[in-house]
Amino acid sequence: MPSSHSATVTALAVAVGLHDGLGGLFDEAGKLLGSASSSIQIWKEGDCVEQSSTDIWLAICTAVKRALSLFDVAGEEVTGIGFVATCSLG
Fold it and tell me: pTM score > 0.85 for this model?
C-alpha cells in the first residue's frame, strides 16, 4: 500500500559503523528524507574488541525498519539501495 507522504522515495542507504547500523531514505534529488539507527554491541577484553555478525545484521534490519516506519514508507516504494560498511563484517 502506498504511503501518504508527498516526496518520492527512490533510495535506501544502509551504513554500518563501529557502534551502529543506519538506514536513510532519499528522494530522487538526493535529499535525505529521514533516517534511523540501531546500536551494535561491542565486547572488549584487553586489547581485543569483538562484534557479532548476527548483532550487526539485526541492527541493520532494525534501523531500516525504523526509518521506513518513521517516514511511513512501504518497502515497495524503495527503488534502489546502497550499502557501505566502515567496520569489518567478517
Answer: no
Q: What is the pLDDT of residue 7?
A: 60
- The CB density around residue 41, as the number of other CB atoms within 10 Å, is 12
CA 80 centroid distance within chain: 13
In a domain, 2, yes or no: no
Contact call for residues 25 and 11 (beta carbons, < 8 A): yes
Q: Give 61: exposed, middle or buried? Use CB within 10 Å, 0-12, 13-18, 19+.
A: middle
Number of independent structural domains in the chain? 1
Round to whole Å and give the CA distance between 44 and 47. 7
1 occurs within a structural domain: no
